[in-house]
Amino acid sequence: MEPIRLTDLARALPRAWNSQVLARFGDANLKLLRMDAAAYPEECHDYAEGLLVLDGEMLLAVDGQQQRVGTGELCVVPAGVRHAVLPGSRGTLLILDT
After folding, report:
1. Which of 26, 35, 45, 55 is most buried (CB neighbours < 10 A)?
2. DSSP string over 52-79
3. Domain with 13 in it: what CATH number?
4. Percentage helix, strand, coil, to 5, in the chain?
């Protein structure tokens, strides 16, 4: 079985902020997307969401608090918590959710 080259796959995605499900593990999804400098609107889920920056940086607002999530860093947003990606975020993002 060949390894999956995530950053190569992200560069090949047709447009930014359009996630692609790469795999499922039980009930969990492993999604990949490419971030550009555009913001992503605030959202809230009834499940926890893991946001792992593979390269670049994500500027994230979680419950009104801004934070920077850099390459190799994971932010886990608990279920029911409002969050949004702020302008200026760029790179490759791996999302873990259900």
Report:
1. 35
2. EEEEEEEEEEETTEEEEEETT-EEEEPT
3. 2.60.120.10
4. 5, 55, 40
In a domain, 1, yes or no: no
Full-model pTM: 0.92
Domain tally for the chain? 1
Is residue 10 predicted with pLDDT exceeding 90? no
* Rounded CA separation 77/50 (Å): 6
Report whether pLDDT(8) > 90: no
46 torsion bin: left (phi>0), alpha (psi -120 to 50), beta (else): alpha
**21-60: pLDDT as tens digits:** 999 999 999 999 999 999 999 999 999 999 999 999 999 9
For residue 4, the model assigns a pLDDT of 87
Amino acid identity at 8: D
| Distances, alpha carbon 86 to alpha carbons 12, 38, 78, in Å | 23, 7, 18
Residue numbers of the domain that contains 20: 6-97
